[in-house]
Amino acid sequence: MAERNNATWENGNRQMLELFYVRHTSLALDSRIFVIAFKAMGGGGGQDRFKPRRRHRRRRPQAPWHARGCGLPARPRRRGVQPGGGCSGFQSDDEGESISAFNASYSGLTGLYWLWRNVDADVKGLVYYRRLLGSPDPASRRAEDPFDRVATGEELRSLVEESGVILANRRSYYIEIVCGRCSHTFDGAPFDVCRAVLSDMCSECVSTRDRLMRARPAHIYNMFAMRADLFDASCAWLFPVLEELVGCVGSSGMTSFEAR
Predict the structure, then answer these.
(1) Based on the number of CB atoms within 10 Å of its own CB, is 53 exposed (0-12), middle (13-18) or buried (19 or more)?
(2) What is the pLDDT along the chain (260 residues), one digit of tens a residue?
(3) Residues 175, 29: contact at Cβ < 8 Å?
(4) Distance between CA 228 and CA 77 in Å, rounded?
(5) Do residues 123 and 227 touch, judged by C-beta distance below 8 A?
(6) What is the distance between the alpha carbons of residues 68 and 87, in angstroms, rounded to a whole number?
(7) Which residues contact 15 (CB under 8 A, 6 or more apart)?
(8) Could you tell me the pTM of the whole model?
(9) Which of 74, 103, 105, 150 is buried most deeply by CB count within 10 Å?
(10) Residue partners of 87: CB distance under 8 A and separation at least 6
(11) CA nearest to 113, candidates 253, 236, 248, 260
């Protein structure tokens, strides 16, 4: 517990702990955290250092990870985009119709906006430099090279034609619900403002939002591939809501992480 309390976003330790939790989430892991937390509350001083245990069970590689600067899988019809602009070797999202200047508040969603307004394709999607959608082919999932486990353009197109939308697998929080998880990571007040904005702009969506926030499983990765008409309709709904939300919340007094 002390290790998590002392970790910061600035030195990268907090991200590593959060990512370890996301990639290894299980009832056993949450039970360990639960016990350590109660030991700290009972007078242990919170000094028990949480040492992640390696799990040897084979996992379906839905989202192979790689570090920034290590490249992208050589796949046709994929394009590396740098949200916020200013990165050589990738398509910058400050060209064409863009909201790249608002990257400090919108984060990677400025790249999503650029894709919506500037790219003509029948299937559109989003993955990140550290995680990618895995192939549905069992043989590909057993490949030694992580990039060989990534879904091909043909596989994604086939899945989208069948379902309209594909997402990364859902993750479950065994101890807390989605709302609690968000409030522990961020200031919870903007989530309440977001609900109020939805009530004004899209009241029929509020019940869906509430069900999600009370649930334990969620699609926590902002990753998907989607039929273009559904993608365009989703963005046409999303960005006016975000614009109103940013106007209501503002970023005065926030750290760069909180503003995003």
Answers:
(1) exposed
(2) 445 556 665 555 666 676 677 667 778 877 887 777 777 666 554 444 444 444 433 333 333 333 344 455 555 556 778 888 776 677 889 999 999 999 888 888 999 999 999 999 899 988 876 778 888 899 988 888 888 888 888 898 899 999 999 988 888 877 788 888 888 888 888 889 999 999 999 999 999 999 999 998 888 777 899 999 999 999 999 999 999 998 998 877 888 888 87
(3) no
(4) 14
(5) yes
(6) 12
(7) 9
(8) 0.70
(9) 150
(10) none
(11) 236
What 3 state SS string does the chain have? CHHHHHCCCCCCHHHHHHHHHHHCCCHHHHHHHHHHHHHHHHHHCCCCCCCCCCCCCCCCCCCCCCCCCCCCCCCCCCCCEECCCCCCCCEECCCCCCCHHHHHHHCCHHHHHHHHHHCCCCEEEECECCECCECCCHHHHCCCCHHHHECCHHHHHHHHHHHCEEECCCEECCCCCHHHHHHHHCCCHHHHHHHHHHHHHCHHHHHHHHHHHHCCEECCCCCEEEEHHHHHHHHHHHHHHHHHHHHHHCCCCCCHHHHC
Cα angle: 185, vertex 226, 177; to 5 degrees? 25
For residues 60 and 141, the answer to whether their CB atoms sit within 8 Å is yes
Instruction: Identify residue 37 by its one-letter amino acid code.
Output: A
Residue 235 in tokens = 């963005």
Q: Helices 189-201 and 228-249 sit at what angle, rounded to 10 degrees?
A: 120
